[in-house]
TrEMBL record:
Residues 63-115 form the HNH nuclease domain. It comes from Nocardioides turkmenicus. It holds the Pfam family DUF222. This is DUF222 domain-containing protein. InterPro entries: DUF222, HNH, HNH_nuc. One of its GO terms (molecular function) is endonuclease activity. Belongs to the Rv1128c/1148c/1588c/1702c/1945/3466 family. The lineage of its organism: Bacteria, Bacillati, Actinomycetota, Actinomycetes, Propionibacteriales. It comes from the Bacteria.
Amino acid sequence: MIVTIDLDQLRKEAGIAQIIGGSPITAAEARRLACTAGILPAVLGGDSELLDLGRRERLFTAAQRRALLLRSATCEAEGCDIPGTWAEAHHWIEWAQGGATDLANAALLCSHHHHRAHDPTYLHERLPNGDIRFTRRT
């Protein structure tokens, strides 16, 4: 289970945390879970896990997938609410075209949208809010 919460929210009595792929919980519940569980704080880009692999590796690692889940709880396609735990890691710039296997070049997409990303009849663009919009080529 992955629970996300901002430090400020954790310190508040009425703060809110989010279970990835689940419902919001209170900060008090998050603190209770932390007392009884093995805790692994997520520090993106920390020394303990390699998150950016460049061109050395083609497939995303488990650590990178966890980091992507922290960034996007659902498929990143506009309006899609498929849980990120069911999504596939996609290279924004395809690995075969020189794209790196790193978080800046990654998107979580459900199977449907991942296939669409590789379908030459569709264009895809990242919106300012981070969503990915697919449009049929004309």
